Predict the structure.
Amino acid sequence: MAKYPIEGRRKALCDWLTANGINPNDVPIDSDLTITDQEDGTRFISYEAFVLDADGRKTLDERGQNVAIEERTTRLLAEPPAWWQPYEKPTREQLAAELEQARAAIFEQDETIDRLTDRALHARRFADTLPAEQRESLLAILTGRAPLDTAAGEQPGATDPTV
């Protein structure tokens, strides 16, 4: 059956499916569940359902590894609850595209981290060439322990706007 986390909504969805002649127990939790309109105004519910044998038991797919599922279409007899939204699982292509976007974002973050690490190492090497007082002041600024107005040996809050 389509994903709806709130128990009250689940019951309302089950009642709606039943009103349309669909057994909610035959519909997988992640089933595609949509309404289509025909040109003549007739409306249909498209959904996925478990394939059952003659005794009403779920059957396995052709590989024998998963429960068999088939697409079904039934005429819409009762309107869905007002909050209902159609649900279609993403396609393999959509999932692959999202995965590629995630990989690209991770790669970009890795490059940013590498650049920041290089800059931090460069700043540390530069700080090591400074006299001790300036080095400590610069390192305090870089690590966020001191405000930027302490740069170049200035005392905090002692900036002169006329300079």
In short: The helical segments are 7-19, 92-128, 132-142. Confidence is low (pLDDT under 50) at residues 156-163. Residues 44 and 109 are 46 Å apart (CA to CA). The chain has two domains: 7-75, 92-153.
